[in-house]
Design a protein that fits this description.
With 489 residues, this protein is of the alpha/beta class.
C-alpha cells in the first residue's frame, strides 16, 4: 500500500474517501470548512446520544473530496483511542477497496491527531493484510488503494515508525501462513539469514549435528522423528555504541508443525499447528523493525526450531532426557515438546551472555482457555521486565495478564525416576509450564515468558485484524527494545 502525507488545507486535498474519527474527549482534526464543520458537529451530537456509530455522506464541497466517512469512538468502550482509530481506518480502507475508491485520506491535523500518526499507519498496514501467495488468481482488494495522512506538519518520523511496526507484524504473519511443507526448520533458518543480510545483523545457526554434539538434547529429541532436522538460529543486532550492561535475548519457539509426536493430537484443527512457530515468527518480525529503527541496545533473536512428528526414531513417553544443566526430565507426553526446545534455548541464551530473556511461545492450551483470544499470559522471575512488557504492549494495543509462578505448584512436576516431568497434570497447565522453564533460566538473568497460545491466531475478524495469524507480541518486543531506557528508568 502506498502511503503519503498531505500538509496543506482541506481545499488542497484530493481523496475519494475522507475518514474522520470523532472522540468525546479530544479532537483529532481541524477541518476549517464551514459547511463540513457544521455537518460534523451535528453528527457528533447524534453520536453522543448513542444514535449513530458511523455515517457516510458525499459533500457538495470541497471538490477534491468524494465521500466523507465519520466514525465515533464514543460507543467503542474498553479500547483506547489509538485502537479505535486503527479499527475505523481499516474498516474504511476495506469499504474503499470494495467500492472502487482508490485514494483514502484520514484527518489527523490537530495537535492530538498528529500524535496518532504512527498508529494510523500501523493499523492501516495490519488491517489490510492478506496472504495470497499460493492462489492461482490473487484477488488482493487493497492492491490499488492509497492512504493519505492529512497532518498539519511534516510527520515523516512518525510515518516511518508506523511502517516499521506494521511491516514487522505482517512479516511474522507471513511466516506463520506458510504451509509446513514449505516452512520447516531449514527454511526458517534461510528466512532468518535473509533478514540478517538485509539489516547487517550477526547470524549463526546450529544444525542437528552441532546440536547433538553441544548437548542440546531437548531440541534434538523433539526433532528426531522428522525428515526435517532441527535448527537453532541466532540473529543479533549489535550496535557499536551499545554498552555491555544489557543484552536482551528474544527467544522464539519455532515448532514448524506439531503433530504431537507419539502422543498424537486429535485430527480436528491440527492444520493450525503450522502456527506452532508463531513465537519464532514474532521474534524475527521484531528484529525486522529493530533493524530499521536501530535502537542503541544489543538485541538477539534466538530461534529453537523443530518439527514434532511420530516415527520409529521419535522420542517416546517414558523417555528420560538429561539436559546440559544436569537436570533430568521424564517425558510424560510428547505433545509438551515446546518447553523442551525452549529449555535448550534458555541455556544457550545464558551462554550468549543474556542479561534479560523474553521467550515467546504457543505453549499451552491452558493459557488459551484461561485468558481467551485477547490476552497473552506473562510470567517471569523479574517484576521490572514483566511490567515493562505489559507497558510496551499497552502502547500498541497488545494486552497481557500476569500469571504467578507459585513454588508450591512445582510439586506438580514431580516424578519418581527423574528430576521432573515435562507435564504437570490436569491443573494450572500454563503455570506449571512456566515453572518447568524456570528450571533452565540462567542464574542472575531476568526472564519473562509470553504464552501466546490463545492470541497468535484470530478465529474471526477482530478489531483491525482479519481471521488468521495476528503477529502478536511483535509490537511489544519492538517497543521494549526501542524504549528500553524509558521502561527501566
Amino acid at each position: 500500500m502506498k502511503i503519503e502525507a498531505h500538509h496543506g488545507s482541506l481545499e488542497e486535498l484530493t481523496a475519494d474517501l475522507l475518514v474522520l474519527v470523532l472522540d468525546p474527549y479530544t479532537s483529532l482534526f481541524e477541518l476549517g470548512h464551514e459547511q463540513l464543520d457544521e455537518k460534523v458537529a451535528g453528527l457528533k451530537d447524534q453520536f453522543g446520544n448513542a444514535l449513530k456509530r458511523e455515517y457516510c455522506f458525499d459533500p457538495a464541497e470541497p471538490e477534491g473530496v468524494g465521500t466523507v466517512a465519520v466514525y465515533s469512538s464514543a460507543l467503542e468502550k474498553g479500547f483506547t483511542l489509538a485502537e479505535n482509530l486503527k479499527t475505523f481506518l481499516s474498516r474504511a480502507l476495506k469499504m474503499a477497496a470494495e467500492t472502487g475508491r482508490k485514494r483514502v485520506a484520514v484527518a489527523l491535523n490537530s495537535e492530538e491527531g498528529e500524535k496518532l500518526v504512527e498508529h494510523a499507519v500501523e493499523g492501516a498496514l495490519v488491517g489490510t493484510y492478506t496472504f495470497e501467495k499460493y492462489r492461482s488468481q490473487p484477488g488482493n482488494l487493497f492492491a490499488e488503494v492509497e492512504l493519505v495522512l492529512w497532518t498539519g506538519q511534516e510527520q515523516s518520523q512518525r510515518l516511518e515508525l508506523g511502517q516499521a511496526y506494521g511491516q514487522a507484524v505482517n512479516l511474522a504473519r507471513d511466516l506463520v501462513c506458510e504451509p509446513p511443507n514449505v516452512m520447516f526448520p531449514a527454511a526458517l533458518e534461510a528466512r532468518a539469514k535473509e533478514l540478517a543480510d538485509t539489516h547487517g545483523f550477526e547470524f549463526e545457526s546450529w544444525d542437528e549435528v552441532a546440536l547433538a554434539d553441544g548437548g542440546y538434547v531437548g531440541l534434538s529429541q523433539v526433532g528426531a522423528g522428522s525428515e526435517h532436522p532441527p535448527r537453532m538460529i541466532r540473529v543479533s543486532h549489535c550496535p557499536e555504541g551499545a554498552g555491555e550492561d544489557v543484552h536482551l535475548v528474544l527467544l522464539g519457539k519455532g515448532v514448524t508443525f506439531d503433530t504431537g509426536g507419539i502422543s498424537l493430537k486429535p485430527g480436528e484443527k491440527m492444520d493450525l499447528m503450522k502456527g506452532d512457530m508463531a513465537g519464532a515468527a514474532a521474534v524475527l518480525g521484531a528484529m525486522d523493525a529493530i533493524g530499521k529503527l536501530k535502537p542503541n541496545l544489543k538485541v538477539t533473536a534466538l530461534v529453537v526450531s523443530a518439527e514434532n512428528s511420530p516415527d520409529g526414531k521419535a522420542y517416546r513417553p517414558a523417555d528420560i532426557l538429561v539436559f546440559k544443566n544436569g537436570k533430568s526430565v521424564h517425558i510424560g507426553n510428547t505433545d509438551a515438546e515446546g518447553r523442551l526446545c525452549l529449555a535448550d534455548g534458555l541455556m544457550k541464551a545464558g551462554e550468549l551472555g543474556a542479561t534479560h530473556i523474553v521467550d515467546v511461545a504457543t505453549l499451552t492450551g491452558s493459557c488459551s482457555r484461561a485468558l481467551g483470544p485477547s490476552f497473552t499470559g506473562v510470567m517471569g522471575t523479574a517484576r521490572a521486565l514483566v511490567n515493562a512488557l505489559t507497558r510496551a504492549g499497552g502502547n500498541w494495543g497488545e494486552s497481557y495478564w500476569k500469571l504467578p509462578l507459585p513454588l508450591e505448584y512445582r510439586e506438580m512436576l514431580k516424578t519418581p525416576h527423574a528430576d521432573m516431568n515435562n507435564v504437570g497434570g490436569e491443573y494450572a497447565g500454563a503455570i506449571t509450564a512456566g515453572l518447568f522453564l524456570k528450571e533452565f533460566v540462567p542464574a542472575r538473568t531476568a526472564w519473562a515468558h509470553l504464552d501466546i497460545a490463545g492470541t497468535f491466531w484470530k478465529q474471526k475478524p477482530w478489531k483491525y485484524y482479519s481471521e488468521g495469524p495476528s503477529g502478536t507480541a511483535v509490537k511489544t518486543l519492538v517497543d521494549l527494545a526501542c524504549n528500553w531506557a524509558e521502561h527501566f528508568s
